[in-house]
Write a structure and sequence with these properties.
2 copies of one chain form a homodimer. With 97 residues, chain A is of the alpha+beta class. Helix content of chain A is 27%, strand content 13%. Chain A has a domain of 47 residues: Transcription factor, MADS-box (SRF-like, 3-Layer(aba) Sandwich). The C terminus of chain A is likely disordered. Chains A and B meet through strand 1, helix 1 and strand 2 of A and strand 1, helix 1 and strand 2 of B. The structure holds a DNA duplex (17 and 17 nucleotides). Chains A, B: It is found in: Nucleus.
Amino acid sequence: MFAASLEVCISAGRLGPPSDEAPRNSSGAKKSKGRGKIRMRKMEKDTNMLVTFSKRKSGLFKKANELCTLCGAECAMMVFSPADKVSSPSTIRPLTT
Amino acid sequence: MFAASLEVCISAGRLGPPSDEAPRNSSGAKKSKGRGKIRMRKMEKDTNMLVTFSKRKSGLFKKANELCTLCGAECAMMVFSPADKVSSPSTIRPLTT
DNA sequence: AGCACTATGTTTAGCTT
DNA sequence: AAAGCTAAACATAGTGC
């Protein structure tokens, strides 16, 4: 395992264009519910940002697990938190040969 | 960078329960459009599986990029393809200090 | 093979508790 | 701060070209 077919992605910070258009909506009033189109740039509010980080990290790990399960792929990923916290996903698995 | 707050996920193969319920639908007829709830186990058809791998890998990289952008996190990921192909995402970035 | 479409399942931002 | 909710945004399996 871990031979030949390898893909790597290392991303440090911004990787896509900022996409600065699209305010919350045309009238400027906030939507009451739902997600509300997000702006692809660093979130300014720290509390929201940490919650979003936690949620999205979970989603990312879940997607990675699904990819492995569905396609018989193998993947490894590391996420460096913006805050000074250490944690590991519950589904961690040792890299056995 | 790359200090202190670190999270690691290494997944080799299956990580979740198979979730064997839910055939396509009760009558056995395929849905004509849309996604149709997928079964979380290795896809048997190789052609579909490769397409799914490609699509989901793209989605995974995109999500990782979004996480980095939105939250100022840093992440690295490696995906080992089930087939013998090598490719890299277009948004690859060197790990500069 | 690879791209476009689209209905539907999934994710998640903002709220509430 | 950490869970749970909801609806809008998003991802994507199957399809057609």
